[in-house]
Every structure is written in C-alpha cells, then in structure tokens.
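name: query_chain
kind: protein
chains: 1
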Amino acid sequence: MQKYSAWLTKKFREWESNIGRRQSVSAFARYLDVNQASLSRWMNGDGPPNYENILKIADKLGPETYQVFDIETTVIRNTYIPEPLLRRIRSAIEEANLELSKLATPLDLDEAERITVAIFEKYGFNRKVINTELEEI
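structure:
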C-alpha cells in the first residue's frame, strides 16, 4: 500500500470522526473538491493524484499533503496574495521546475528564463498581467 493511500484513508476517518457520524467517500470527495472515482483509486493505492488535485487536497487537509506526496514546496507565509492567484503561481512554478529538471545539460540564465516565462504565460501570466495584479495587492 502506498503511503498516500494509508494517509488519505486516515484523513477520511478523522474527517468522518469530526463530523460525528459515518460518511461516504463520495461526501469526502465533495469536501476535497475532487472526483469521487479518483479519490477511491488514490485511497486504494492505484496511482497518486495529479498536481492540481494535490493542491485541492492540500487546501483542505493542510501542508502535510505535500510531504505525503513527496512534493517539494516553497513555503509562502503571511501572504496577501489571493488563494486562486497563489494556486496558479504555485502550479506554474511546479511545472517550470519539472520542465527544467528534464533537461540534461545545465541551462544558462536566458534559456531558463525563456522556458519559465513560456510556462507562466501558459497559466495566464505575462509581464503586464503580473505587474497589474501585484499593484492591486
């Protein structure tokens, strides 16, 4: 059994206990905002969730989630960045790290920036949008 499987099952039981009565996995999936069939697979150890679903799980079950799924995180504390924007930033950073790690040779700064900017643009960021959103904060 995968460690995340046992952890999700434990968290389900804790959630159920906090409610005070038996609950369905379907209700737990709604609470986590994930697909019920997918949650059942994860709880059975049939493959881990994707990064987007891990973010949803972490929103409800806390930062321990990242450790369970072996995801390295940069902790942002006391931020005033709205959660939806923060989630997009984290997703873009994770994807950029993944893409840069796939390249065999060390990259120069310009190449790493080109790849990272392209990924951030994919998530709806560009220099004008980033500057505007940060000015609003």
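note: The chain has two domains: 3-68, 83-136.
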